[in-house]
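Dear Dr. L.,

I hope this message finds you well. Following up on our conversation about the binding site, I have prepared a predicted three-dimensional model of the protein together with magnesium ion. For your records, I am including the exact sequence and ligand specification that went into the calculation, followed by the structure tokens. Please feel free to forward this to your student if that is useful.
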Amino acid sequence: MKITGYKLGMLRVPLVTAFKTALRTVDHIEDIVIIIETDTGHKGYGEAPATAVITGDTHGSILDAIRTFIMPRLIGMEITSLNEITQIIQGALVNNFSAKAAVEIAVYDLFAQFYGAPLYKILGGGQPRLSTDLTISVDYIDKMVADSIRACDAGYETLKIKVGKDIGVDIKRVKAIYAAVKDRALLRLDANQGWSPRQTVAALHELEEAGIELELIEQPVKGEDLKGMKYITERVRTPVMADESTFGPREVIELIQMQAADIINIKLMKTGGISNAIKIADIASIYGVECMIGCMLESSISVTAAAHLAVAKPNVITKADLDGPSLCQFNPVEGGATFDSSEITLSEESGLGIKSIENLTMLDD
Ligand code: MG
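The resulting structure of the complex is given below.
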């Protein structure tokens, strides 16, 4: 099975409610889709969102990285040369992790199709089911409480509460949501780099003293502020998770050796795809550090790939934040994983199991 070409498209899907964090407000998923073609007629699917405020990747940069730097180097390669292909992808240019992720996802899809097995089996096997949380966007307190209750009614047992705006209001937000759903759901907080180290410690001490049990606090301070992350990790009881503080395997090693976080959030759009995500999971497992598998605003193409990876690494990837498809008004993908509120079930089809994609506007090359 040789790589012979590729097509690019733009996938646009409206969200159920606007996605609001300390950094941005978004009401649509708008992602680049790559379809890699082969001489056997098999197609591999990949996807990448533009998350300029986090990864620096824009639609324009993703398209140019794929068209000019990555794909020209892969045409003619045998899909069975997986390690060589991923090295070429990672070395084609620096950074541009989302573009690399989109191409790697499509390559792994084809690699597993070649061997006629679902991707998670090729990655080592596992139980093909996961349970994800749901994100509650930062908003007025009443709206966040109502959204949290609705999520519990829909069957979610873990909620990821977005905060990081105004720390005084953030504490009130968490207290109100906890009072409303504490018997029904576990709460994760994601401050999206919105607080300072001292503010975070003060806020968590106040919440801890009020008897509020949080599963974790995610990236309260700026990604580059590893000392701030360490300062917090040393002082609060609530486990601290690094998101924007870690992209690739090297940063994970640094972060773990500094003891700057308790948990690592792995996202394919930060790692540059599956090959580095595997390395991170293996590094974390050596150190006994747990990981979450997360996603950006992604549809079920790249989220299906992330779910396959998580299923194959259950000893270390113990938490899932793969709610991208659940935030969409509809699933544009036929095949792939099934998303039924909190339950994600992988298909037993070869590769990612994706058959077709609606709402895709092809871009001419
Ligand atoms: Mg986050």
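In brief: Residues 121-356 form a domain with the TIM Barrel fold (CATH 3.20.20.120).

With kind regards,
A. P.
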